[in-house]
Specification:
Elements: H1 2-6, H2 10-20, H3 25-32, H4 36-44, H5 52-63, H6 88-103, H7 116-127, H8 142-161, H9 167-183, H10 188-211, H11 215-232, H12 235-251, H13 255-269, H14 275-291, H15 295-310, H16 326-340, H17 343-356, H18 363-379, H19 383-399, H20 403-416, H21 423-438
Helix pairs in contact: 2-5, 3-4, 6-9, 6-11, 7-11, 7-13, 8-9, 8-10, 9-10, 10-11, 10-12, 11-12, 12-13, 12-14, 13-14, 14-15, 14-16, 15-16, 16-17, 16-18, 17-18, 18-19, 18-20, 19-20, 19-21, 20-21
Length: 440
């Protein structure tokens, strides 16, 4: 028991409890804050608990009140991957180390570092580097073209099927292909193109890790993508990385950091930012203000974003910002109004977003929008309709390897709990509980 607790092996702890005590499965489930079905699956070997939050909950539940050491969950060096590097070769070295602790699932790799851990990297990026907008060199052949294609493929898998669908393969590609290329010497034109496309690839891996809720790894990949964008001289791509970091910070609840990162993105991009970029960066700031319940600041940022979005010229945008279309813009505004409690407006905008979205290219995003819509309908007092909307999206949550989708579902289910006793609410809550438990 001591060894299993020290190693953070929640699965072994549960099995040891059943083997060496008289506790029943339902009692173990209550200790661990798990469903009895989940405990039964762990005991039978059908399921292994891996999510850091679940492991911590199980270990603390079992060891509480006993002289058993807590698991060493902070073995990842706290500074690893959270600073800009002096050379692409150093970046390659750091990326290899981050990928190593990621693959080995070293305790602590999933936990979001504090905002102060990356503030120096953001400041360094803001005050350094060339003043060019994007990478000037474009190489359409060889390794650069291969990495560009791989980045597009993994991003498409992420957007449609969720971050955990092909994340392990992306880490393997990073270690086996991208890192060795970064270690080599290249002519300036090829080097700048390689750094830019590598930054896009690492950024896509950061998004996948964030969606899988491996937040510590995601934050380290984000910072290294920022570093690679700096080596490429691509200020706009670097600003996009900061915007993505803002998105993650807002999701994990560090709203002030999310606001500052969004502002840094806008400031760092400067006048070279296209109107689409300005709108996206401003909406990240608005999301942070809405989550922090600063209504006036949120409306100011949304108003600026609306003006920028109305002036946008998609033909002037880099390919990596092409996803920010009418559907995505409406979805971001709907999120803001949901967080501010404006259910009627949130519902209208979520419906607009879904109506303007076509195909399955961004299937995961549509899950988010549908759950925002369900929350808005619930906010209008339409419990039965809201639960129906929530039930309709359950198969899509099951089919998507996205911890964030599960998180959205769990948050919506919590908002439905006050209506327990109503048949529709009870039925939805039972269905949602099964989906969330299966993802633990």
């Amino acid at each position: 028991m001591r060894r299993a607790a020290a190693e953070g092996d929640a699965n072994a702890l549960i099995r040891l409890l059943l083997r060496h005590t008289d506790l029943a499965q339902d009692a173990i489930a209550r200790m661990c804050d798990l469903s009895q079905t989940m405990v039964s699956r762990v005991l039978s070997g059908q399921r292994e608990l891996r999510r850091q939050e679940t492991v911590r909950r199980v270990v603390e539940g079992i060891t509480h009140g006993y002289d058993i050491p807590s698991p060493a969950l902070e073995r990842v060096p706290p500074e690893l991957g959270l600073a800009l590097n002096g050379s692409p070769q150093k970046t390659a070295e750091v990326l290899g180390q981050v990928a190593g602790v990621d693959v080995e699932d070293v305790p602590g790799v999933k936990e979001q570092p504090p905002a102060s851990a990356v503030s120096s990297a953001v400041l360094s990026w803001l005050v350094s580097g060339p003043t060019s907008g994007g990478a000037e060199a474009h190489v359409a052949e060889g390794p650069v073209a291969a990495i560009r294609s791989a980045s597009a493929t993994f991003s498409a898998l992420d957007n449609r099927f969720g971050g955990d669908n092909a994340r392990a393969a992306a880490v393997h590609y990073l270690n086996g292909t991208v890192v060795p290329l970064l270690r080599e010497s290249h002519a300036e034109k090829v080097g700048r193109a390689l750094f830019a496309v590598s930054a896009e690839f690492v950024l896509s891996l950061a998004w996948m890790s964030y969606d899988a809720q491996r937040n510590g790894a995601a934050r380290r990949y984000f910072v290294q993508a920022l570093d690679l964008a700096a080596h490429a001289g691509d200020r706009l791509l670097g600003a996009s990385v900061l915007s993505a970091m803002s998105h993650q910070a807002n999701y994990v609840g560090t709203h002030a950091e999310a606001r500052d990162l969004a502002r840094a993105a806008l400031s760092g991009a400067g006048e070279r930012a296209t109107q689409t970029m300005r709108a996206q960066f401003l909406m990240m700031e608005a999301r942070a203000h809405a989550a922090g319940q600063d209504k006036s600041a949120c409306f100011r940022a949304m108003s600026e974003a609306e003006r920028a979005f109305g002036r946008r010229d998609p033909g002037a945008d880099p390919g990596w910002i092409g996803y920010f279309d009418h559907a995505e813009y409406s979805d971001e505004v709907a999120h803001c109004h949901r967080d501010l409690g404006h259910a009627h407006v949130a519902r209208r905008l979520a419906e607009q977003s879904l109506a303007s979205s076509v195909g399955e290219e961004y299937a995961r995003s549509r899950v988010f929008t549908r759950l925002v819509l369900a929350a808005a309908v619930l906010g209008q007092g339409e419990v039965e309709e809201a639960c129906h909307l929530g039930s309709v999206v359950l198969p899509q949550v099951r089919a998507t390897s996205s911890a964030r989708c599960v998180g959205y579902l769990d948050a919506f289910a919590r908002s439905v709990r006050p209506y327990r006793g109503q048949p529709t609410a009870d039925r939805f809550l039972n269905q949602a509980r099964a989906v969330v438990s299966a993802a633990q």
